């Protein structure tokens, strides 16, 4: 089983999108719990998390949170990221056979242009991350957030695709006509 971890700050709509994709995995017993680490949201992020049955932390230390999660594996996502069809089966297979951290592949139309990838790199959680809890606990240091934890790891890449959070944020910020 795995625990989903997300950091948020005023990501109400994006959080709802990501949580809706996780429902099938929770029904299948893959997801043990979902933990939201908030950075001072002023919107309805806490209400969305509560309605979905998530634990919502406003004052947190990552090491303390990791000690309390139920899953032996962690799924780190950005609010707004949407895993695509087939991810549950691939993750179940991966958890049964692998020990190293892994990230998801981006949906082709959301991949950054090659030159931009080379020059600026991707945000640490843009591809999501699967990581054993024990590996995270061994790497985490006081004051660390999820981005800092991820940036230290060498990752395998899964075939399952993910729409990055930046796509959801762009859709939310387009004014309605």
By CATH, the topology is Spore Coat Polysaccharide Biosynthesis Protein SpsA, Chain A
Number of domains: 1
CATH architecture: Alpha-Beta Complex
The coarse silhouette is globular
Order of helices and strands: EHEHEHEEHEHEHHEH
Amount of helix: 25-40%
Query: Average pLDDT value?
Result: 87
Secondary structural class = alpha/beta
User: What is the number of E strands?
Assistant: 8
Straight-line N-to-C gap = 43 Å
User: Going across the major beta sheet, what is the strand order?
Assistant: 3-2-1-4-7
* Oligomer type: single chain
Largest β sheet strand count, sense and barrel closure: 5 strands, mixed
CATH class assignment: Alpha Beta
> What amount of the residues lies in strands?
15-25%
Q: Spans of 5+ residues with little confidence (pLDDT < 50)?
A: none
Describe this structure in words.
The longest helix is centred in the first third of the chain and has 16 residues, at 12-27. Strand 2 (31-38), helix 2 (45-51) and strand 3 (55-57) form a beta-alpha-beta unit. The chain has a single domain (2-173), classed as Spore Coat Polysaccharide Biosynthesis Protein SpsA, Chain A. It contains eight helices and eight strands. It starts with a strand and ends with a helix. With 177 residues, the chain is an alpha/beta fold. It has a five-stranded mixed β-sheet. Helices cover 39% and strands 24% of the residues. It comes from Pseudorhizobium tarimense. This is Glycosyl transferase.
């Amino acid at each position: 089983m795995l625990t989903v971890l997300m950091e948020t700050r005023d990501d109400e709509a994006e959080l709802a999108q990501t949580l809706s994709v996780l429902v099938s995995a929770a029904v299948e017993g893959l997801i043990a719990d979902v933990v939201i680490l908030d950075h001072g949201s002023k919107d309805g992020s806490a209400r969305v998390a509560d309605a979905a049955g998530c634990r919502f932390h406003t004052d947190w230390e990552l090491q303390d949170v990791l000690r309390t999660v139920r899953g032996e594996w962690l799924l780190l996502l950005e609010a707004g990221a949407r895993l695509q069809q087939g991810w549950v089966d691939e993750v179940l297979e991966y958890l049964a056979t692998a020990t190293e951290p892994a990230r998801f592949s981006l949906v082709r139309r959301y991949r950054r242009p090659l030159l931009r990838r080379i020059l600026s790199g991707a945000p640490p959680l843009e591809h999501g991350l699967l990581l054993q809890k024990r590996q995270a606990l061994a790497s985490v240091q006081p004051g660390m957030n999820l981005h800092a934890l991820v940036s230290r790891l060498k990752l395998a890449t899964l075939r399952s695709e993910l729409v990055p959070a930046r796509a959801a944020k762009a859709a939310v910020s387009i004014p309605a006509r």
